[in-house]
Write a structure and sequence with these properties.
- There is one protein chain.
- This protein is of the alpha/beta class.
- It is built from 10 helices and 7 strands.
- The chain has a 7-stranded parallel beta sheet with strand order 3-2-1-4-5-6-7, with helices on both faces.
Length: about 280
């Protein structure tokens, strides 16, 4: 099958070896499920190894769970080596692991900020640095990173989180040029707010709440079409691009109407306490 509007054929998912980080639950698990259903051989990596193994068993098929700490070089390298030993060379790495602390910038614990940088940004950099050279040596491969609409936007209350996602997009943009012509492609998926534990208690702004399956479908599409920037929902990308040409005062007004103020959304709420307390003491 050809990619619409392109002479390139779609890349088949069936039979591909795909390693997904942070995949024991939420978006990562939905991605693993969508890939397994389509016949991929899927490795679920997660810092909670028991949950990764249990999730793999529940999905069935050619799915296995592995221990993975994306903040540690040795752990990430061992994960990729184990997947290659069990399934064969990794065709696609999906960088999905991520964490988010929400609240006023001056109330954010230093530990939470450091954890977001370690997981969201350095975890992605580590995955690319370890996986891409192996793929380049084979002459083919893909790395799909689940980032966020916060790669281009910065909702109040998510300033450090947005900074990590801006960093991810900048990093991948540069590395993409370095890999041009190598056979290795990069994709970055940028969803708005998704109904997961990470986003509990937050607002969605002018866009409705997404489901993990919506992001999983976008990841599959990115794999098949090798698109670099993938917005979920698709209409958000052109709107963000249009606001970029507006004068600052008008852009500010539009953004305040469209982008949720998460400081206001979480004020006085305890819904995020169970998720955020471990980040604050990491």
């Amino acid at each position: 099958m050809r990619i619409p509007g392109s002479s390139r054929p779609e890349v088949p998912v069936a039979g591909s070896v795909v390693a997904v980080t942070g995949a024991a639950r939420g978006i990562g698990l939905a991605i693993a499920d969508a890939l397994a259903v389509r016949g991929a051989r899927v490795a679920i990596g997660d810092v909670d190894a028991d949950s990764a193994i249990a999730a793999a068993a529940a999905l069935g098929g050619e799915v296995r769970g592995y221990a993975l700490d994306v903040t540690d070089d040795d752990s990430f390298a061992s994960f990729l080596d184990a997947v290659a030993a069990d399934f064969g060379p990794v065709d696609v790495l999906v960088n999905n692991a991520g964490v988010m602390w929400v609240g006023p910038f001056d109330a954010e614990p230093a530990a939470a900020a450091e954890r977001m940088v370690a997981v969201n940004l350095l975890g992605v950099i580590r995955g690319v640095r370890l996986a891409a050279p192996i793929m380049r040596a084979r002459g083919r491969g893909q790395i799909v990173t689940v980032a966020s609409a916060a790669s281009r936007l910065a909702p109040p209350g998510e300033s450090t989180y947005a900074a990590t996602k801006h960093g991810v997009l900048g990093y991948l943009t540069g590395v993409r040029e370095e890999l041009r012509g190598s056979g290795v492609t990069l994709s970055v998926v940028m969803p708005t707010v998704v109904d997961t534990e990470l986003a509990a208690g937050t607002a969605t702004g002018s866009v409705g709440m997404l489901q993990p399956g919506d992001v999983a479908d976008a990841v599959v599409s990115a794999m098949q079409n090798r698109t670099f920037q993938v917005w979920v929902p698709k209409r958000v990308g052109p709107l963000v691009g249009l606001t970029g040409v507006l004068p600052q005062w008008l852009r500010d007004r539009v953004m305040r109407l469209a982008v949720p103020n998460q400081v206001v959304a979480v004020a006085g709420s305890s819904r995020r306490d169970g998720y955020q307390k471990p980040l604050s003491s990491a």
